[in-house]
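Protein data sheet
==================
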Amino acid sequence: MKEWSKTRSARSLTLSVIAASVLAWGSASAGVTDADIVNDATTTGDVVSFGIGTQGQRYSPLEQVNAGNVGNLVPAWPMSYGGEKQRGQEAQPLVHDGRLFVTASYSRL
């Protein structure tokens, strides 16, 4: 009888730790909110919608890159999306909380 009780207690403790870990991880990586999407065109830290805003204007108020220096831009790092049959990048990259998300062919993220 006592052995069953110890096993049950160990399972309960394990499940409690797993549940707490999942909840902590979920709150630490909060998703995109409606406000993030609505304000996408006016905020410069994230790009959470195609075209940088719900109107798809593709305009950023940042001034670091402008008509006078855009020709000096060079790639900072390359990324391969696979071989010739992988079809490469399929959409505009999105940025949220310092993470870059890019979709590629065949539903790859």
The first strand starts at residue 94 and ends at 96. The chain has two domains: 1-30, 32-62+78-109.
